[in-house]
């Protein structure tokens, strides 16, 4: 195991951007302090190393959610407003009149500090803090984001505290392409969750409903049959667990080269985005798929509100684990 650090130069805030490479066996993960992002994840496939994450070529000068940490609150907050503990708050409307992914000053745009690094554990812990003046959420939020690599798994953990009652519902936003092909058509997606949330322009429409027909992916579905159809945006939905889970497994993704990826999380939902509208350097439509463990869209205004609440002085943790294996 190992963890190495190199400099990528200075950010706009004049703080040095660092790249941390974690190594465990034949696997490696490249973590950038800018955005707290997972920029690269390489694993051994046969006789070669295969990167299973696709990232924008220059996420520093052209800020991107792709690969980055996202927060304070991932996904949509409708009309960029919410009420919590009897107080109303207005946020930046950075997405068609709504608020998305913590706004332009959110986790993805920040150059995180290296709080701890342990080469013998292939681990790095990043730290940032964000104030009300920066993002309009209540309270000074202090957050650590830990990445720890094993040969067949990447463990990640957010931990946060706030000076005032606030909301906290983060995620990570990597795009996966397990085969290195130009698109993800040969991938198979399995989601063992019982409900999905209909969305309209990213905003929840109605209550979650039981999976049925094309959105029932409990037994898996080949992406080609969906992505080459008339509705290329059809998978851009949120699937939700039913009640208290007996497992944290949210989904599995497999490719024709035998690579299987399994995503586990403490969070109750999975947002899927097939990159059908991507036009970033290094990313294009269907070149990767985002599988985002999180709380459902607009939780700040819906039944999940209390679950994403973080009260002054308390600490809360959310974890995401990526596991992989190679079919024989």
From TrEMBL:
Record bears the keyword Phosphoprotein: no
Keyword field contains Calcium: yes
GO molecular function, one term: aldose 1-epimerase activity
Keyword annotations from UniProtKB, A to Z: Calcium
GO biological process: galactose catabolic process via UDP-galactose, Leloir pathway; glucose metabolic process
Taxonomy, superkingdom: Bacteria
Pfam family, one: Aldose_epim
Cofactor requirements of the protein: Ca(2+)
Cellular component terms per the entry's GO annotation: cytoplasm
InterPro entries noted in UniProt: Aldose_1/G6P_1-epimerase (IPR008183), Gal_mutarotase_sf_dom (IPR011013), GH-type_carb-bd (IPR014718)
Assembly description: Monomer.
Protein's name in the database: Galactose mutarotase
Originating species: Phaeocystidibacter luteus
